[in-house]
Amino acid sequence: MQHAVGAPGAPQPGGGTGHFPLPSAAPVQPPTAAQAPIAVLLIGAAGAGKTTIARHWADHRAAPTAHISLDDVREWVRSGFADPQTGWNEHSEAQYRLARRTCGFAARNFLANGVSCIIDDAVFPDWPAVGLGGWKRHVGPGLLPVVLLPGLDVVLTRNAERSGNRRLSDEEVARIHGRMAGWYGSGLPIIDNSQLDVESAAAALDRVVTRSLQGPAVW
Prior knowledge:
This protein is 37% helix and 11% strand. By secondary structure, the protein is of the alpha/beta class. The protein has a 5-stranded parallel sheet with strand order 2-3-1-4-5, sandwiched between helices. α1 (50-59) packs across α7 and α5 (152-160) packs antiparallel against α6. The longest helix is centred in the middle third of the chain and has 23 residues, at 90-112. The N and C termini lie far apart (50 Å).
């Protein structure tokens, strides 16, 4: 027998199940320095270090913070995984869109329950509708985007250390890095972490986020 939520005998949200209800569809409002939680979108090419830096930043914040990696969520699909390295097609694109919506859902749920989050993704500046605009729709206008943009030689070296479907060809890495350069002049904060270790890059990210929270977003 099925029960309507709120009806006598119906299981209530959070009633020992670990389920947390999402709020209404109203957008998450831009945070201020005195408000928590916050949502950060860390943008970077393959090999930029965004996943490692995002994880380190989340690990060392004083406030509860979650790390949401788009690549990790994409790879939740096991049987039938559409690997973009075998050719970008409608199946890999559909799984990418699904992963992005899932990440956005998770981010909103964390924010609604008082947990900040940082999402990492390779967002291209020339894809406004499905890139930064898409994340803004999924998470809300309070999203704080930050770009990691080390030099090409650094990105190539880091990519060479990868394995599996995370490793791309040098040609693909160079192409992606060139497209990422389009973020210059966008008004978004950019961190060149070519000479920074993970801890220093995370500290630079923290400074950027703090400055962003001190005034209205301009992107």
